[in-house]
TrEMBL record, chains A, B:
This is Kojibiose phosphorylase. Pfam families: Glyco_hydro_65C (PF03633), Glyco_hydro_65m (PF03632), Glyco_hydro_65N (PF03636). GO terms for biological process: carbohydrate metabolic process. Belongs to the glycosyl hydrolase 65 family. Substrate binds at W356, D357, K613, Q614. Residues 321-708 form the Glycoside hydrolase family 65 central catalytic domain. The keyword Nucleus does not apply. The gene is kojP.
């Protein structure tokens, strides 16, 4: 059904196409073909309704808690897409009649979604339809829709209802008070919603322009309203070959918009300004507005992130562009008070909450491609210190204990307490991650470190970064448990990255990362005291650094760090893992359907098997080697290899966060085929044939992982010892890859071929990097030969 | 599409049939074929979903206010009807493939809904389906569903999801906290909802029994849960001619159930008891449970209300049975803390609120057929005194000012403030009735009087009735405005029954009824003091009757009662009406679509035209002649005739409350053809061809009006001077009518023929009645000849 090879010429590997209508595929397409601009995200539901659809429209950061016993989530806003179309009284739907020449396409380059087909109604009326739409990157509050209908079989009456429908819920949870509905001048629709707990006003607007054969039709549609809904009823007679064009412009504004955050907000003012803006948009018209949007995508996205791959499989290039497309539309580049949810703005899954997915899987793209956005996302976590303090206090700890799931920065934990059915008890299963998955605080500290190292952004460190590192370290000092028998600090009863293991003791990832967090604090504390005593003093006043430093030192020195086993270098994932029962996992590996093991075992049973849901020890190895902090452990290649060889067969990749890390390590270790096949697996997470995996939204971390696999894996770009390293290892069927990265304030272009790579620095400045053991310095451009090095 | 003549033999005029599937007719059929038992009401949505559907399931009295800026309403409960059926993977829907032999029927006698057809899937699989369901009158908490599917074209995989879905809303407003979901023994589903404001727990349960060719299939369905939803996935292979039978039993209990109202309520206890009850039901099985339900309908309904009409048009008899059916399922006979909403329990329209519809249009059926239920409904209003006091206090009045729309007895006004679009301003239009439609207090007083006169229930009067009459009279004393110029009391700025006239002064209906209310208070006060000084003392203490009595006397004596004009006997509907502009109303009269006048005029303009939405002065004349209270005005037949002749042409019957009154008066006046055609018009309100008029629910008052027209109109039964009067005037094409009524504790059977009628008294006792000026006394049975009397 999905075809990635429709693009030709300039559009090669830019088009995602659906070539036949499929009701079962609606959810997936809504998510992967989702439109957005960081401010808002619009699932690509069709104008006409289907039962399998999931209409979702979100604005970043407009969190609300619908009922007192639910958690805060991103509310599903009023729908403006739906059009109820009747052709001679018959309801238009592709489930009835006959459809020919069907094509739906997302053009990644222009961020436009189009859909066209010829439809024969059950009664035999034939019409051609063409739908187009965009969510403007140039005007963050604007959405544009255009429909062209042509009658191919004589006279028909074409009627449609179109308006704003705020009866939408989040799977039944209503987040909004019933709000004001207005129609101005019989034409401009306005509907206001206000979240029922957080009190955010949302003003939706809509205007139509309807023309026949290019001439605007001068008529007044019937106006209608009901509960939470306002709409217009249009009815037009079409003769054979008549073309009806409907342009629909929609805007949305909220009281949480940044311009409203700085005092003076009044709803009526916002409504009025929005109305005037819409009137201006209406004068400009769809085509001009679309052209401005297209230009913005060229300049702000594709010129900046330009990414080309020459490969036997076009989907490799397309998938990376798909990733960049989604990374662009998911990132609230305009507002540092917002983060990125695990499903971005493409579905209700995970409720818009930010997980470690952001820092470990998504942020690297921005750190290396658009550090401004990375900074903005880190500031969101800085603002989250307030919530992190609350969570720590609630659990009896100190410092910043970041919530496993974060919504409002000021709030603590927002992980729901109960999940899906437990097939044994018939009850809902308990979700433990909000209570005991603690590594996220260290993951965020790591991200601060990575950002600082890659950008050298001292201002960020002074204003935000140091405090985040110190505050998370402060948490770990309180979290560590003294084992007086073994005379060491332990971290017991946690969940590590491998969520198939609940309530484990001394998860290696958690312990090592907590240790690294402490070490980072010690390192940065020393640095700060030297280079900026003022800030040191300020922070010291806030959190008594002088007494924390010795505590950090003592605890870092005595935290238990599970050593690689002498005999085989295996680092135990946790205290119990290596002693668990082994079973034949072949029937669960490489399954199209994830979590296949649940058909045979329940959670409690899986907890007792030597099976890993997703990269755990391997993520640790991948992260540790990026840290060049005194005392943070580095492991030799043999350990990396041994653990990869041990854990990869035991890892089911039942989380979309898993394959990217394995692919990068496989590439590092010279397992090129495996690396490439894991990359393909990553592509399949959202672009594969499995039709229902993306129903709740795209997999934002896996999307970040696609970019990471290409750049960190195949291009071998990494930050090591505070240096840029470039160790390219192209997959066998890749002839070349070209892309941009940013490093220490410089913009670099990389062109990687089979036998060499070329680094070009934009503008002034020198950039040093290491490649396979050799140091290079590049002023304008440098070509580095590749050869025997490849497998070092 | 709807066929009322399918019933044959014993089932003649008992079946409402739909003979072809129509998506556009779904809403109407859901409402008019609605099932219920007074405890709950279930719209007859189909198992499979359609976009035009409106799934609604209500339990009487479970009011809730979803959001602080909305009004209290009856929440739409979790849905248990829906089944998502797939045949070899194709979603079953009558909108696709081919449907033959379609028949959907509501059997009014057994209160069973059935649906059968042969469906050919788009891929050519042929199956026969038969669906049956009932809402038990024997077990108020039980609903039963049965599906039989037969494969007619070889092997098919028949899969269905069935469960409890609490994602339902009231047009987008969610009333429930997310609640617990459980599956016991892989079989018994339980979902608990709690209203988010009023805190009512609702426990839904479901169990399936699935068999193939009569043998229960022993397999475990897949269990699933998501937000606000729990369900099972079944999949069964059928060979040609295999019959699959699915029995689904559903129960629902609430913390508001009467047994829970008396202390000791615990949710877990209710859940457990409900589970045990369901297990017992599951052992009994669908067929036995249905048989018990059928018997209950025979004994409690049709034996009691038995109603037969011999007429040329079978629909006449069917329509009255339809009315009795709905009057039965809408009445909360089990609980006096509940009333009847304007749409009963058959739709979201009017939010489950009780209007004057109950007292003036619905209650008479119960007063004359089942006084126990009438009493229960009046006690609901007695409990409502608390809210009526609140409303009075809020508006600066005294006594009991009943809310125009009533939900919780303790609350005051619950009329929404804003309604549909104003086509001129583009804003929502203001709803005035909650503020200024005041006649309802007098209407309720009238109902108390009617009940007392017809039943002689002194206990009721002592405990409830006197207080209601006195308290409403107390309200009027504060409501009356002294016009010092004219030296009279007036009632200005009101809406009378004719809601096309807002902000009128001295609406005749309101003034006369307020006057009657005062007179009733004086009358009953005198009576009470004599016959029960204890109660008098008690009430006197509560509301200082001794000082109220003179005030009532003085005000009643000086309230302005618009006199019939000398020249033509017309009673002015209000101060302005007779001076308003007259227009040609012929294009709006007898329109299938009501409110057609709104296409040409807006509310403000209609306010200035001599046009009446619904019976106003004529309802007054109809009510007044039933009151035999000293000083309450009676008008001679000439006045009745003059006003009928004047107002009927000016009345658009744009309210479903209108035709019944006009039909009764037409019958009284000997306009037999007109009376009959108005009766037909009343039938068409819910049973007519207009497909969308009942979408929001049936018209409970119009349904009450059908019975009233037949009994008060054609049979000429009325209460006059405290006496039963019987003035039959059968429509020309009616040969006879037979029915039961109750009068002063006696059960009477009436058999009315063209030339005589027979009254039979059940059991002991004498009943006196008047017929065309003659007094009769009946001990067992009496035959009264009819003849020249007919047109008196």
């Amino acid at each position: 059904m999905l075809d990635y090879a429709k693009g030709e010429g300039e559009l090669e590997n830019w088009l995602i196409s659906e070539t036949a209508f499929s009701a079962a595929g609606l959810g997936k397409c809504e998510a992967i073909l989702c439109l957005g601009n960081g401010y808002m995200g619009l699932r690509s539901s069709t104008e006409e309704s289907y039962f399998q659809e999931k209409r979702n429209f979100f604005i970043n950061g407009t969190f609300n808690r619908s009922q007192k016993n639910e958690v805060t989530e991103l509310p599903n806003l009023a729908d403006s897409i739906q059009m109820d179309i009747r052709v001679d009284g018959e309801r238009f739907s592709l489930e009835v009649g006959e459809t020919n020449d069907y094509l739906r396409q997302l053009n990644l380059k222009t961020a436009e979604l189009s859909r066209s087909f010829i439809w024969t109604s059950p009664k035999g009326k034939i019409l051609s339809f063409k739908f187009r739409r965009f969510v403007s990157l140039e005007h963050l509050h604007l959405l544009g829709f255009k429909v062209e209908v042509k009658s191919l079989s004589g006279k028909v009456q074409f009627a449609f209802d179109s308006g704003i429908n705020a009866q939408m819920t989040n799977s039944g949870s209503q987040h909004f008070l019933e709000g004001e509905r207005r129609i101005f001048d019989h034409r401009f629709l306005q509907l206001t919603q206000t979240t029922n707990e957080s009190g955010i006003d949302i003003v939706h607007q809509m205007v139509h322009q309807v023309s026949r054969n290019g001439k605007e039709i001068d008529f007044e549609p019937e106006m209608d309203m009901e509960r939470r809904k306002v709409w217009l009823n249009y009815s037009v007679d079409l003769q054979e070959q008549d073309v009806l064009t409907i342009e629909k412009l929609v805007t949305v504004h909220t009281s949480r918009d940044k311009e409203n955050a700085v005092g003076g907000y009044e709803l009526t003012k916002m409504q009025q300004a929005a109305l005037e803006e819409l009137k201006r948009f209406a004068l400009t018209g769809y085509e001009k507005l679309f052209e401005m949007h297209r230009q913005a995508w060229q300049e702000k996205v594709w010129d900046l992130y330009s990414f080309n791959v020459e490969s036997e499989k076009g989907i490799d290039e397309l998938a990376i562009r798909f990733a960049i497309y989604h990374l662009t539309i998911m990132a609230p580049a305009h507002d540092e008070r917002m983060g990125i949810g695990a499903k971005a703005l493409s579905g209700e899954g995970y409720k818009g909450h930010a997980f470690w997915d952001t820092e470990i899987f998504i942020l690297p793209f921005f750190i290396f491609s658009n550090p401004k956005v990375a900074k903005s996302l880190l500031i969101y976590r800085f603002l989250g210190l307030e919530g992190a303090h609350k969570k720590a206090a609630a659990q009896g700890y100190k410092g910043a204990m970041y919530p496993w799931e974060m919504a409002w920065p000021k709030d603590g934990e927002t992980t729901p307490e109960w999940g899906d059915i437990d097939i044994v008890t018939g009850k809902q299963s308990k979700i433990w991650s909000g209570l005991i998955e603690h590594h996220i605080s260290a993951d965020i500290a790591f991200a601060v470190y990575q950002y600082e190292q890659a950008t050298g952004d001292q201002e960020f460190m002074d204003a935000y970064g140091y405090e985040m590192i110190f505050d998370t370290a402060a948490f770990w000092t309180s979290r560590l448990e003294w084992n007086s028998q073994k005379e060491r600090y332990e971290i017991n009863d946690v969940i590590g990255p491998d969520e198939y293991k609940e309530h484990v003791d001394n998860n290696a990832f958690t312990n090592y990362m907590a240790h690294a967090n402490l070490k980072m604090a010690i390192y940065y504390c020393r640095e700060l005291k030297e280079i900026n005593p003022e800030v040191f003093k300020k922070l010291s006043k806030k959190m008594d650094l002088e007494s924390l430093i010795p505590e950090w030192r003592e605890k870092a020195a005595n935290v238990y760090l599970p050593e690689p086993r002498e005999e085989d270098f295996i680092i135990p994932q946790d205290d119990a893992y290596l002693g668990l029962k082994q079973i034949d996992l072949s029937k669960y590996k490489n399954q199209a359907k994830v979590r296949a093991i649940y058909r045979d075992y329940n959670s409690e049973q899986i907890n007792k098997l030597q099976v890993t849901k997703q990269a755990d020890v391997l993520v640790l190895l991948y992260l540790l080697e990026q840290l060049s902090i005194d005392g943070v452990r580095k492991f030799p290649k043999e350990v990396k290899q041994a653990n990869f060889d041990f854990y990869e067969p035991r890892t089911l990749h039942d989380s979309s966060l898993s394959t990217a890390t394995h692919a990068i390590l496989a590439s590092d270790l010279g397992y090129q085929e495996l690396a490439y096949s894991l990359f393909q697996k990553s592509i399949e997470i959202d672009l594969g044939e499995q039709m229902d995996t993306s129903d709740d939204g795209v997999h934002a971390a896996a999307i970040g992982g696609l970019w990471k696999t290409a750049v960190f894996g195949f291009a071998g770009i990494r930050m090591k010892q505070g240096r840029l390293t470039i160790h390219p290892r192209l997959p066998a069927n890749w002839r070349s890859m070209e892309f941009n990265i940013q490093w220490q304030g410089h913009k670099l272009h990389l062109a990687i071929r089979k036998d060499h790579f070329i680094v070009t620095v934009e503008g002034m400045g020198k950039v040093a990097f290491e490649s396979f053991g050799q140091m290079f310095e590049c002023e304008n451009s440098i070509q580095v030969p590749l050869g025997a090095n490849l497998h070092r």
